[in-house]
Amino acid sequence: MADTLVLDWLDEFESLTESEIHTYSTEQEHNHEVMIALYSILYDPHKYKPDNLIDGICQQLLNFYRSGEPHLKKFTMQFIPSLAFLHLTDKSQTSVQTLLVSLYNLEVIDSKGQPRTVSFRIPSIAQSSIYHDSSTLESAFTAQNSLRRWEECNSKLISWGPLPQVECLNAQNRQRVVTALMFLYTRQMADVIQQGIEFTCRGISRIVTQGFSMSSVSNRSSCASDSSLQHSSLPRVPVSGPLLIELCHLIYHAAERCAAMAIQALHDVIQRASYECYAEVLLAGNAIKNLMHHSPTVSAAPRPSHSHGVSKSMITNASFRTKKLPDDIPIQDPNQTTQSEVPLDSITEEHEDGDKKSKAGALKHLPKLPGLSKKHKQNKQGEQVEMAGGDQEKGNVEINHAVHVSAV
């Protein structure tokens, strides 16, 4: 099915005129069926019968790149990992080697034919970004010496290139050429479909694990249970430290869209780096591994949800009731005198003593209205004065005294 679709795709481009190439290039950007078919053929070309199918594909991709159309150029660049992995495992494919050399020589020079240099700056903590505000740094970072140390990163530009051109791929320049092509592919990963990233991760795992015994890859997860990875009789593929570093860079970007296979590919790269004793690869690989472990967008395992329960000591408006309910009335002792006539006090937030004191203090500030003052009972001395009414002078004095008390 894939080979038939690719053969029709090859015949279609040959019948186009120059005026139809632009429209054809726009259509190829969304031709996912042909892309997936090409990935399948380049991943395992021995499954398909036509012997010259790989030659036709490589010639077609080279014509796409030289056509000058940006869409056709991106279409070719997305197959760089598949072509590189195919060349590393099977060097008898001369058409693949020719295509890789052509792409490399055309990418390392600019439009004027001069060696190309790509420069970029590493972000510094001394300058604000979308991730942090430099004005909120601690006092230790704002010191003159510390800030000068952080600002040194701005004056140092990281450059890629210039790289020399090559005539053919051999044991001396093969790793360097493949590493440069992987760097160029990583810059355009945003335009690659998800199926292409999956094939790339599977290709990385196959390259770094081919030729090893089953015991070293026995703990592989089910997401990468590919039969081609289990051929321990095949020779091991030589890989250099810079190439594995670039593969880690590729895996880091692939994890955003294909987390499961990217994590498995990273695990295989770390295992191969441990075997080769590449310290820089182990440092970069473990850093990416720890970042994936704590990243919510990459972690495949579901995170437990934390439920926040209401504390028993929390007090709300519903905790206060205006009146006592029957369940709240204490059981009285029958031997004690009941105070049924006394009304029940309402429950308030403050204590009862404080409430009574506040009421008494509030009554003192109220204005006294005539005729509404509460009359107090006469004391015993006043009663005795009223009973002894024989003495007139004494009675008048006591009456005046009684009146004075009631007025108070």
UniProtKB/TrEMBL annotation:
Its main location: membrane. The keyword Amino-acid biosynthesis does not apply. Keywords: Cell membrane, Cytoplasm, Membrane. It comes from the Eukaryota. Pfam families: Hyccin. One of its GO terms (biological process) is protein localization to plasma membrane. GO terms for cellular component: cytosol; plasma membrane. Residues 325-399 are annotated as: Disordered. It is found in: Cell membrane; Cytoplasm, Cytosol. Belongs to the Hyccin family. This is Hyccin.
